[in-house]
Specification:
11% strand, 124 residues, three-stranded antiparallel sheet, transcription, Arc Repressor Mutant, subunit A, 3 strands
């Protein structure tokens, strides 16, 4: 029961639900892409991602300076994710997020980093 409660608490925030929705459409996203999508600070995104990971909803991997996230589907959560998919299907907000993500994934990680943190982050 604790796992179920952790999952429900984790997705009870709009931005965390947006992350889950985005990752249900993309196999994997970089933290910088998620930051760009949510339009909040990196620290806020990090906190949201940590909560989702702690609930068992996200897996991550590090590749150099980049951290990538993908959905983890804990055992027994298939009905939950099916329900979310059905719920997301008619959402105009999700449609807008997906349109934004199409543009975001077309930008290199380095360029996103420069946009978010300045030139010193990823010098050319």
């Amino acid at each position: 029961m604790e796992t179920t409660l952790d999952i429900l608490k984790a997705v009870s925030d709009k931005n965390r639900l947006r992350v889950v929705a985005a990752l249900s459409r993309y196999d994997e996203l970089c933290a910088c892409q998620i930051t760009e999508l949510l339009e909040v600070s990196g620290a806020t995104v990090s906190r949201h991602l940590g909560i989702l990971q702690k609930a068992g909803l996200l897996d991550s991997r590090k590749d150099g300076r980049w951290v990538y996230f993908k959905l983890a589907r804990p055992t027994g959560t298939d009905p939950f994710f099916q329900w979310l998919e059905t719920t997301f299907a008619g959402s105009s907000e999700l449609r807008a997020d997906l349109e934004a993500l199409e543009k975001i994934v077309g930008i290199t990680r380095e360029d996103l980093c420069r946009q978010q943190r300045g030139e010193a982050c990823c010098p050319k």
